[in-house]
Design goal:
With 103 residues, this protein is mainly beta. The chain contains no helices and 7 strands. The strands form 2 sheets. It has a 4-stranded antiparallel β-sheet, with no helix packed on it. A hairpin with a 4-residue loop joins strand 6 and strand 7 (95-101). The protein starts with 5 loop residues before the first strand and ends with a strand. The chain has one domain: Immunoglobulins (Immunoglobulin-like).
C-alpha cells in the first residue's frame, strides 16, 4: 500500500481550506522500461473527500496527473475539530483513505 497522504485542513473566514499531498507513482503507460517494453498505466483514477462523513468532493483523474499529486479545495463552513477524509482508488484496484482534523 502507498504511503500515507499528507492532509492539512484549516478553517478560516467561513470556509475550510484542505490541502492534500498523495504518494503515488502515477505511471501514464506511455514510457518504456530499460528493455524497451511499455510500462503499464497505473494511476489514481478516483478521488473523493468527506467532511464529517458527508461527501463534499469527487474527482475522476486520468493518466496526465503528475507523480505524487497535490490537490487543494475549499469547503463552506467547517470548524476546528471537524474531520476531513480523503480516499483514492487507482487503476490496479488499490485504494487508500486518510483522515485529518481541521485546525
Amino acid at each position: 500500500m502507498a504511503d500515507p497522504m499528507r492532509i492539512r485542513a484549516k478553517a478560516e473566514g467561513g470556509k475550510t481550506t484542505v490541502r492534500v499531498l498523495m504518494s503515488h507513482m502515477m505511471e501514464s503507460g506511455q514510457r518504456k522500461d530499460a528493455a524497451g517494453k511499455p510500462i503499464l498505466a497505473w494511476h489514481i483514477n478516483e478521488v473523493s473527500a468527506s467532511h464529517n462523513g458527508t461527501v463534499v468532493m469527487t474527482a475522476e483523474w486520468g493518466q496526465a496527473v503528475s507523480k505524487d499529486p497535490f490537490m487543494q479545495f475549499n469547503i463552506k463552513g467547517g470548524k476546528a475539530g471537524d474531520k476531513v477524509a480523503i480516499t483514492w482508488k487507482d487503476t490496479k484496484g488499490d485504494s487508500r483513505t486518510d483522515e485529518a482534523v481541521v485546525t
